[in-house]
Amino acid sequence: MSGRGARWRPRRALLVLALVALTGCSGPALDGPASPTTPTFAPPLPGGALVLPTEGGGPPSNAAPAPTSCDATPSLRPGAPTTPGSMPPGGPLARIAERGRLIVAVDQSTNLFSFRDPRTGDLAGFDVAIAREIARDIFGDPSKVEFQIRNTVDREPALRSGSVDLIINAMTITCDRAERIDFSTVYFLAAQRILVTEGSGIGGVADLAGKRVCTVPNTTSLANLQRVQPAATVLAVETWADCLVALQQRQVEAATTDDALLAGLAAQDPYLEIVGGSLEAEPYGIGIDRGDDELVRFVNATLERIRSDGTWAALHDRWLSVLGPPPAPPAPVYRD
C-alpha cells in the first residue's frame, strides 16, 4: 500500500499542476478582470446534427411555392371489398399475403405517432395503429406487421426498392414526393407551427429571424421554414426527439414541425409551449410505390372503413387526445 501511495503522490502533483494551467489559477491580471477559475463545457449536439447556413437575411421568399401548393392529395378510389386471406392473384396484395406479413416503414421517436412504449419496448402510436388496421384487412390479423425503422432520408428508397410495402410515418403529401411515389387519401391533417420554452418571447415566425431553430432535413418543415423565414439559423437533426433535447439544453431557441408532432414533444416537457399560427397545412398520406394501384386502392378502402365505422375516432382518442376531442376524419378526395 505504501508503495502505491509513493507512486501516486508525484502523479497527483502533476494533475494539480495541469489543472492550474487549464484554469488559469496563477492569479488575475493586474489590468483586467479575473480569469475564470472553472472551465465550462457546452453539452454536445445530438448525433448527426448539422448547423445549416442561413438562406439570407432578406424578406420571406413569397415567390417560392409551398411544398403542398399543387395539392397532390387526390388519390384512387377504394377497390372492391376483399376477404382477408384471399387477395387477387398476381399483384402486390398477393405478394404480401404469400409473404405472410405487411412490411411498413416507421420511425421510433415520433411521440404519439410511432414511438417505443417505455413500459413494453414495443412500437406504438397512431401511425402504428393505422398499419395494424391495414394488416387486419389483408390477413384478418392486425399483428401481422413487420415494422422497419427508417429515417426521412432512406424511407423512400426503401419503398422504391421493395424493402417495405408502405410508409406510414407522419408523411406530408407534397408536390415533389408525389412525382416519385403514390399516396393514399389523407388520413390526418396537421399544420406546421413553432415550439418554444415558456417565456422565450417568441410568438410567431417573424420572431425567428436571427434565432437558431431545430428541424429535420428532407421534410416540409425545413422547406417551409427556409421559405418563410430565411433569416433563421437551422439546426438540422436526425429525429424530432433530438429537437426536444436541443431545446432542453438551450442549443436552439425554437423547433418547428407539424403541430401534432410538436404536441408529442410538449407532452414530455411541461415548460414547452406551441406558439404562432400555421406556417403551412400538412396533409398526411400513406406512401406506396409508384404504379402499385391495387395496393393504393386497398389502403384507401381500409381508410374508408376506419372513417365510417368509428375506428379512426377511437384511435385519435387513444393516441392523440392531447390535441383535444377527435375531429371529423379528413374527407377523402378521389381523382377517378
UniProtKB/TrEMBL annotation:
* UniProt entry tagged with the keyword Signal: yes
Domain named Solute-binding protein family 3/N-terminal: residues: 101-323
Source superkingdom: Bacteria
UniProt-listed SMART domains = PBPb
Which InterPro entries does its entry note? Bact_solute-bind_prot3, Solute-binding_3/MltF_N
Signal peptide span per the entry? 1-31
- One Pfam family here: SBP_bac_3
- Give the start-end ranges of region Disordered: 31-93
Alphabetically list the UniProt keywords: Signal, Transport
**What family does the Swiss-Prot or TrEMBL record give for this protein?**
Belongs to the bacterial solute-binding protein 3 family.
Report the protein name in the record: Transporter substrate-binding domain-containing protein
Which species does the entry assign this protein to? Rhodococcus daqingensis
